């Protein structure tokens, strides 16, 4: 426990791993990760630049993460992915829950995509979002790293894609060969 972190609203067992700023809203956004011996899923907190205390962007749920946060520089929105985590022997594994948009001004959260709604081009039939690379300035596009598979092969293809919002259509930019984070 670090007293300075507790004083600004960061819960015990967590520490910052990513810091963002959203100019239109004046919000400081921090992604938190587990820092103690007990594993805790990543969470996203924010505060106004003139305030001192962070608050979560969504209610905390045991073993459900909010991670890979990105924000737009011209729109008061942030984006994140969520995974449901399970303990397996010596490690934790995640099942992709969804890609979310959080409206910083209203506090409204919208699920933009999940396993059953991700619009994959052929030949892919199954896919998930591994990481948000960035958001466009006006929040009309997200750049994502996805994993996708097809019935013809058991291999997973990692791809850099652009997602058009709000429709959710994916456009492949480049394959990511080899093992990517």
Structure write-up:
The structure is a single chain. By secondary structure, this protein is an all-beta fold. It has one domain: 6 Propeller (Neuraminidase). 3% of the residues lie in helices and 52% in strands. The chain has one helix and twelve strands; from the N terminus they run αββββββββββββ. The protein has one helix spanning 3-7; strands at 14-22, 27-34, 43-48, 55-56, 67-71, 77-88, 91-103, 109-113, 126-135, 141-149, 157-164, 169-175. The strands form three sheets. A four-stranded antiparallel beta sheet has the order 1-2-3-4, with no helix packed on it. The longest helix has 5 residues, at 3-7. The two termini are 29 Å apart. The mean pLDDT is 91.
List the helices and strands and how they pair.
Layout: H1 3-7, E1 14-22, E2 27-34, E3 43-48, E4 55-56, E5 67-71, E6 77-88, E7 91-103, E8 109-113, E9 126-135, E10 141-149, E11 157-164, E12 169-175
Antiparallel strand pairs: 1-2, 2-3, 3-4, 5-6, 6-7, 7-8, 9-10, 10-11, 11-12
Descriptive terms for the model:
single chain, 181 residues, Neuraminidase, 4-stranded antiparallel β-sheet, 52% strand, globular
Short overview:
The protein contains one helix and twelve strands; from the N terminus they run αββββββββββββ.
- CATH architecture type: 6 Propeller
Averaged pLDDT:
91
Order of strands across the main sheet: 1-2-3-4
Topology, number of strands: 12
Q: Provide the CATH top-level class.
A: Mainly Beta
The percentage helix is under 10%
């Amino acid at each position: 426990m670090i007293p300075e972190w507790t004083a600004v609203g960061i819960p015990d067992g967590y520490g910052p791993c990513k810091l963002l700023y959203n100019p239109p809203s004046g919000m400081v956004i921090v992604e938190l990760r587990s820092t103690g011996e007990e594993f805790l899923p990543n969470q996203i907190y924010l505060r106004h630049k003139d305030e001192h205390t962070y608050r979560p962007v969504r209610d905390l749920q045991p073993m459900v993460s909010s991670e890979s946060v990105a924000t737009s520089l011209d729109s008061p929105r942030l984006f994140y992915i969520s995974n449901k985590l399970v303990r397996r022997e010596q490690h934790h594994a995640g099942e992709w829950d969804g890609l979310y948009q959080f409206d910083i001004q209203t506090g409204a959260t919208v699920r933009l995509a999940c396993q059953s709604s991700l619009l994959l081009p052929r030949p892919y039939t199954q896919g998930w979002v591994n990481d948000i690379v960035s958001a466009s300035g006006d929040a009309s596009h997200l750049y994502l790293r996805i994993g996708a598979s097809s019935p013809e092969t058991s291999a997973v293809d990692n791809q850099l894609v652009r997602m058009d919002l709000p429709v959710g259509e994916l456009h492949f930019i480049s394959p990511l060969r080899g093992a990517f984070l």
